[in-house]
Design a protein that fits this description.
This protein has 163 residues and is of the alpha+beta class. It has two helices and five strands, in the order βαββββα. The protein has one domain: Thiol Ester Dehydrase, Chain A (Roll), CATH 3.10.129.10. It has a five-stranded antiparallel β-sheet with strand order 1-3-4-5-2. The radius of gyration is 17 Å and the shape is globular.
């Protein structure tokens, strides 16, 4: 995943070994466990970014799950590597792309198991009904910003059509 650059990291990774209580009787990790890790990674990177400039402190709140793909099962004993990256920012929202890889720590084999696109908005810690402005990101390529803007406008249009 190559994306925009900022003074704060635009990508993070969290890792966790999957245990029996994370899975069903067949040994496959519950989708809810994976969704929770996806959202946690998105919340961390978004909140860090939204607090990267001086100003009112905030927490990034999940506003929209654009898509979530379950590509392959993850099993007990594998390590989940959840990578989250900020791929676009608008005045009041942050787009985060998340990829989940499973690693068999006995063999070193890795596979992509999940992908997701999430949108967050920064809410003031003083007044949780107040949405704050998002610090801009600097893109390494102009096309990244243009592609992000197209995705933003498309999801905005979809929201208007479903109201």
């Amino acid at each position: 995943m190559s994306g925009p650059t900022t003074e704060t990291p635009s990508a993070i990774q969290i890792c966790r070994i999957m245990r029996p209580d994370d899975a069903n009787v067949a040994g496959n990790v519950h989708g809810g466990t994976i969704l929770k890790m996806i959202e946690e990674a998105g919340a961390i990177i978004s909140t860090r970014h939204c607090n990267s400039q001086n100003g009112e402190r905030c927490v990034a709140a999940l506003a929209r799950v654009e898509r979530t793909d379950f590509l392959s099962p993850m099993c007990i004993g594998e390590v989940a590597h959840v990578s989250a990256e900020i791929t676009y920012t608008s005045k009041h929202s942050v787009e985060v792309q998340v990829h989940v890889m499973s690693e068999n720590i006995l063999t070193g084999t890795k596979k992509l198991t999940n992908k997701a696109t999430l949108w967050y908005v920064p809410l003031s810690l003083k007044d949780v009904d107040k949405v704050l402005e998002v610090p801009p990101v600097v893109y390494s390529r102009q096309e990244q910003e243009e592609e992000g803007r197209k995705r933003y406008e498309a999801q905005k249009l979809e929201r208007m059509e479903t109201k």
